[in-house]
Specification:
The protein is mostly helical. It is built from eight helices and no strands. The longest helix has 69 residues.
């Protein structure tokens, strides 16, 4: 049975990033960090205020243009992450080859996302129906059922997101279709849920702390020289740079964890 070592993956990732930094970081900055920064700058003020202080009963309407921009940004980030995985999983591949491979496999990744969204929607509709039935019995029962179903749905989404964390490496490294990619990614993480959960939590915390610190420090320095607009722009760029660095290390580590979990007899990969 394959084993998964976070420590070994970290050592391999550090060595690989040090060797291939000139390929990895420009791709991460261009296709992962900057799209998110641009989307943030495009966000309407009412949405920015809501994200700063979320209120479930006062969610502002999302302008259609911003919704389309968000969708395009997500797809572009997926494309960038696939490119980074291609570079990490195929040492020696050029950036151009990685981009072409990523573009060819992007429809499969989009297909897996649609399947997951449909599955979540079905669960949500079923939960809503249960809530309606409970409301016919009593308001107290409906409130309790709604709370339990909400926590249950969130738990299912959280569990599935961890179990499918190796989906991108599977998509870029194999010729599998939508459903087979989902099954393979799910199978590779069997028995490693808590290990992967701990790894992702640590990476996200460190990334958030480092990004926030860089944004605050650089933003403050820029604000002293150029005012509030300069502070926001410089802080955003600093945060994007730190985010790109964190993304590179995280994705390369996931690529190494994927290789560790991958069955040794798998031959259905691009040559």
């Amino acid at each position: 049975m394959a084993t998964m070592s976070i420590g070994k993956a970290w050592e391999e990732a550090v060595a690989f990033v040090a060797r291939e930094a000139t390929l990895l970081f420009p791709v991460a900055l261009l296709f992962v960090a900057l799209p998110g920064l641009i989307l943030q700058e495009m966000m309407p003020p009412e949405l920015q205020a809501w994200f700063a202080q979320p209120k479930p009963d006062a969610i502002p309407a999302m302008p259609p243009g911003f919704g389309l921009a968000m969708l395009l940004t997500i797809i572009l980030i997926w494309f960038g992450s696939l490119t980074l995985f291609a570079l990490a999983l195929r040492p020696g591949i050029s950036v151009g080859e990685a981009l072409r491979l990523s573009f060819a496999r992007l429809p499969v990744l989009i297909g897996t996302a649609l399947v997951v969204v449909v599955a979540v929607a079905v669960i949500f509709i079923a939960a809503a129906l249960v809530g309606v039935v409970a409301s016919l019995a009593s308001k107290q029962l409906a409130a309790a059922a709604g709370l339990l179903l909400g926590f249950g749905l969130a738990g299912i989404v959280f569990f599935a997101s961890i179990r499918l964390v190796l989906l991108n490496p599977v998509v870029i490294d194999t010729r599998l279709g939508v459903m087979d990619s989902l099954r393979q990614a799910w199978a590779l993480t069997r028995g490693y849920f808590w290990r992967l959960f701990g790894f992702l939590i640590i990476v996200m915390l460190l990334s958030t702390i480092a990004g926030s610190a860089a944004q605050a420090i650089i933003g403050s320095l820029a604000g002293l020289a150029g005012g509030a607009d300069a502070a926001r722009l410089a802080g955003g760029l600093a945060g994007a740079a730190v985010s790109s660095i964190a993304q590179v290390y995280m994705l390369v580590m996931l690529a190494r964890l994927y290789r560790q979990a991958q069955p040794q007899d798998v031959t259905d990969i691009f040559s």
